[in-house]
Design a protein that fits this description.
28 helices, OB fold (Dihydrolipoamide Acetyltransferase, E2P), eight-stranded mixed β-sheet
């Protein structure tokens, strides 16, 4: 603690910010407690109280400072725009981030008012780009809407993420001709020069790899932080094997560039401190060039601290530096504490300092000292560490054995052993660092990505050094434009991709649910205790290590049950935008997912959406509910807004059965079948029948499709599976997108009875929910799954009027987010996210 005096204050600041985040406390309310804490601290110092009392008093002050910072930085009301959501309006402002091109669209940031930005997307035409450099005032016509997150527990808050960057609107321009440059200039000249340089670098990359968009896109992400042109399928193997961090700008990349530059400067015979100064300036320039990428800025700040320590002839300590940088960042923006990138960066650095370095000092540092000046026998007496002396003797015996066995000279044998040992030390150090980081970041990795990669240890040892070499090689190619260097850079990148793909093939297809708070707190406390024991060289270190390892194993094995209520039937309508996805939990815990959302009309899009609703919307909610495996998934029919996310859900939750009515004639269905076969999921075809399906005391009737139903050549809404679930005195009717012909068929066969909850057909379209149908089912509650301000204008006013005339309470996902209906067979409960 004496060697790293800033660690405890940093933890106290984090505690105060976290408390202020979850509890609303105003600045005025903090004035008196803060004054009292300051007085108590001054009194403890004046009276010469014990060290622990002084530390407690100072920590209390810093906790209150953290609360005050959170209260001071708490965002106010977002700025308003005189336009309704999805309204087409004329906007004018300053281009503050120039367009970035991808095959069919461009995106740039437009400052409409100070610190109020709009993210503008332009539908590009072939061979036509929007040439808008930084600092150009423009006027454009666009459809404007506020960013909106999916309203389900456990979802990524996209709107808050953009608001943190001061982006409050999303604007869509249909034609580049709707953008008009205005006379004059705006912005800052020096930023314009940086953006000009960034644009030239991206153009140079495109020229170096004209027929290889994958290499161009990945290098743009690695070198310049430009990720818009990167397709998700290019990065899946890196995500699966825990090596994705090597693909995006991180502190590791900045460190490689800094070391490369330092090496070149020292070759030019510059002394240490001037070389560090030039490298620091260059690293900050690179941080600006990469778009002020947070990991690059944090690494530049750390490098600046290293420069100051070197100038003052002080040894830098990683934990102290990490704590100092964290405190500076959190003082500027307390909400960074809850940013995944911030957490992973600082936890990784702390893990290296707290776990990896002590382990290296114990195991590999003596070996490194042993081979120093290995060929000089006179140097033996200068070695003081007894472990290093022992290793030196053993390695000398190995070198002598090699000389006798191979017949080479003593000098050659010593050199061979020394270089082999250095290589071994490098591999062991890489493995130690990788293992310690994977161990320490387990909780945030599960929380944000629901992954704990088994192959990450070896994948990182191989991929990270390759991609470290990509950085200097890539910048050499950018600066010189030489094709041979560009080919060499591409070869390194492709080798890393091949290694990631090989490890992905071996990686178990396993995702991990949210960790209960008790387990998470216990594991975090165990890691802290292990770090303290390692630092103090305590005899309790093995015990602390065993406890931490046991809790890590618990996180991986997930021994906790799903969050369900025994004895209750639950139907939850997820907010998946303009699509459908329902979670049904039966009274004894059997789980069924009906549809998995998607994008309407995706099968007709030339460029498929990069977002997978099943992976990024449906699965996070199921993981939030701590559901590890689904028993049944149901596909009502083969439209993309119901089927688009199903393949990802099957991969993540490995259902026992897949139910559907008719075989959808689409490529998407073939993909679903392939994923189902890979996980041993049995396909069950549902048709109307006299028998009922019984699950956990409920009865399920299949009302459509009829046994003689003949589907058309293309998937249609009338292919929908219609299910009625009864439990006690209550019932639920789930209609998919069934339209009026199917409703008339069910009426003709007298299949319909009054129900408690109706999932309104076809998102509330006027093509469904006829008067006769609603008269027959007489719902008390009507659930409508529809997208916010959707282009289809669902639900239709006539449907809402018919439901209101029958006194049904309408529950819409676009208005209330996730909607949960529960019944014990008699009582009914309704919950909504909003």
């Amino acid at each position: 603690m004496l060697r790293e005096p800033l660690v405890v204050p940093a933890l106290a600041l984090c505690l105060g910010i976290a408390a202020g985040h979850f509890c609303y406390i105003g600045l005025a309310e903090l004035a008196l407690p803060l004054a009292a804490a300051l007085a108590l601290t001054a009194l403890s110092i004046w009276r010469g109280s014990g060290r622990w009392i002084r530390l407690f008093c100072v920590s209390l002050v810093i906790v209150l400072v953290g609360l005050a910072l959170q209260a001071f930085h708490r965002p106010g009301r977002p700025p308003r725009l005189d336009a309704a959501d999805a309204e087409t309006v004329a906007l004018s402002g300053c281009v503050v981030n120039p367009p970035v091109f991808s095959p069919d669209r461009e995106r740039f940031l437009l400052e409409l008012a100070p610190r109020a930005l709009a993210q503008v997307t332009v539908d590009s035409k072939p061979n036509q780009r929007v040439e808008l450099p930084y600092g150009v005032p423009v006027e454009l016509v666009a459809k404007v809407r506020r960013p909106r997150s999916f309203q389900n527990p456990g979802e990524f808050d996209f709107a808050d993420y953009l608001a943190h960057q001061r982006i409050f609107w999303i604007a869509e321009v249909r034609d580049p001709g709707d953008i008009r440059r205005l006379p004059g200039a705006c912005g800052h000249r020096w930023l314009g020069a940086l953006f000009w340089l960034r644009t030239k670098a991206l153009d140079r990359l495109e020229g170096l790899y004209p027929d290889d968009p994958r290499t161009e896109g990945l290098l743009a992400a690695m070198l310049l932080g430009q990720t818009l042109g990167v397709e998700r399928r290019w990065t899946d193997d890196f995500r699966l094997t825990g090596t994705y961090h090597a693909l995006v700008i991180s502190g590791q990349h900045v460190a490689v560039l800094a070391l490369t530059l330092l090496f070149l400067l020292r070759v030019l015979l510059l002394s240490r401190v001037p070389a560090l100064g030039i490298a620091t300036v260059a690293i900050w320039l690179y941080a600006f060039l990469s778009g002020m990428n947070p990991p690059a800025v944090r690494a530049a700040a750390g490098f600046t601290l290293f420069l100051l320590a070197s100038y003052c002839c002080r040894r830098i300590r990683i934990l102290n530096s990490v704590a100092a940088i964290a405190m500076v960042y959190l003082a500027i923006d307390p909400e960074l504490l809850f940013d995944s990138s911030f957490q992973l960066s600082f936890v990784s650095a702390a893990a290296i300092a707290a776990f990896a370095l002590p382990a290296m000092d114990r195991y590999t540092t003596p070996v490194r000292h042993a081979i120093k000046r290995f060929s000089q026998v006179r140097y033996d007496t200068a070695i003081e560490d007894p472990h290093a002396k022992q290793w030196r003797v053993e390695l000398r015996l190995v070198a002598e054995t090699l000389r006798i066995w191979s017949g080479i000279s003593s000098a050659s044998a010593s050199a061979a052993v020394a270089w082999a040992t250095r290589l071994g030390i490098f591999v062991v150090d890489c493995a130690l660092i990788s293992a310690c980081i994977q161990f320490a970041v387990a909780l945030p990795m599960v929380q944000y990505f629901h992954r704990l990669s088994v192959t990450a240890l070896s994948a990182n040892v191989l991929v990270v050094p390759l991609f470290c070499a990509v950085m200097p090689a890539g910048f050499a190619a950018l600066i010189t434009g030489w094709r041979p260097i560009a080919w060499f850079t591409a070869a390194l990148l492709h080798a890393g991709q091949a290694i990631a793909a090989g490890h992905a093939y071996m990686e178990p297809a396993r995702r991990i649910t949210d960790v209960p708070l008790v387990f998470a707190a216990g594991f975090a406390a165990a890691l802290v205790m292990l770090a303290i024991c390692l630092r103090l060289r305590s005899r309790w270190t093995p015990a602390a290590g065993c406890v931490a390892a046991a809790l890590f194993l618990c996180v991986y094995l997930e021994p906790w049950p799903a969050l369900t209520r025994t004895g209750w039937l639950e139907v939850s309508g997820l907010d998946v935008g303009q699509g459908d996805s329902l979670l049904v939990v039966f009274p004894h815990g059997t789980t069924m997912l009906i549809d998995a959302g998607g994008f309407a009309g995706a099968e007709r899009m030339a460029r498929k959406p990069q977002m997978d609703i099943g992976e990024e919307v449906v699965s996070p909610y199921l993981w939030f509910r701590q559901i590890q495996k689904l028993d049944v998934v149901v596909l009502t029919h083969g439209h993309s807004d119901h089927m688009g996310g199903l393949a990802a859900v099957i991969d993540n939750f490995r259902p026992r059965e897949l139910w559907t009515g008719v075989e959808p004639p689409s490529q998407g269905w073939s993909e679903v079948l392939r994923h189902a076969a890979a996980h041993g999921t049995r396909v069950r075809w549902l048709k109307r029948q006299h028998e009922t399906i019984t699950i956990d005391g409920t009865t399920i009737r299949v009302l459509a499709p009829a046994a003689d139903y003949q589907p058309k050549d293309i998937a249609g809404n009338d292919d929908s599976v219609v299910l009625e679930i009864r439990y006690g005195r209550r019932s639920v009717l789930l209609t998919g997108d069934a339209e009026k012909p199917i409703e008339r068929d069910m009426l003709a066969h007298s299949l319909l009875e009054p129900v408690t909850l109706l999932k309104v057909g076809h998102h509330g379209s006027k093509t469904s929910s006829s008067q006769e149908f609603l008269d027959a089912v007489a719902p008390q509650f009507a659930l409508i799954s529809d997208g916010y301000k959707n282009s289809f204008h669902h639900p239709h006013p006539s449907v809402l009027a018919r439901l209101a005339a029958r006194h049904a309470e309408v529950l819409r996902t676009d208005e209330r987010g996730l909607i949960t209906f529960r019944t014990d067979g008699n009582k009914v409960e309704i919950e909504a996210f909003r």
